[in-house]
Amino acid sequence: MIEKDFFIDTFHYSSPKPSLGITANYFNEDGLIDIAITNTGLNSEGASISVFFNLGSGSFTSPINYPTGFGPVGITSNDFNNDGFVDIAVANYGYLGQGNSISLLINNGLGQFPNQLTFQTGAGPFDLKSANLNNDNFADIAVACDGQK
What is the pTM of this model? Predict the structure, then answer.
C-alpha cells in the first residue's frame, strides 16, 4: 500500500493546449529525464508538442514548443535515426480532415528538434509505440489507428 504522503509535492506546468500524450526520456543528454507532451486541444485542433527540460531539483523548464501535424495525441521517444540522440514521434489524429499522419521530430544533439519528417498513416492514428520490432538494431514505430481494422 502506498502511504498518503508518498507524493510530497505536486507541480503544475502549463502548455499551449490540453494534452493527451506524454513521454519521458533523455532529450538533452544532461543525464536527467526530460518530458515531452502533445498539445492536442479540446477538439484535436492543436498542432504542436511541448518539451520540458529537467532542472535536477524536481522542477522543469518552461515549455519549448515544436510544430506537428494537426491533433497530436500519441507520443513516443527513441533514437530513430541511430545518431545517439533521442528523437520524438507523434501520432497526428487530425482536425477537420487534417491529420492521419505521424510526425518524426529529429533531435539535433542539443535537445532541440528543428527538423520534422511527416509520414502518412491509416485513418485516425491515436497512439504509437517504439521498439526494435524486427531485430535489425533500429527503432521501429507501431501505430494504432481507430479508423481501420
Answer: 0.90
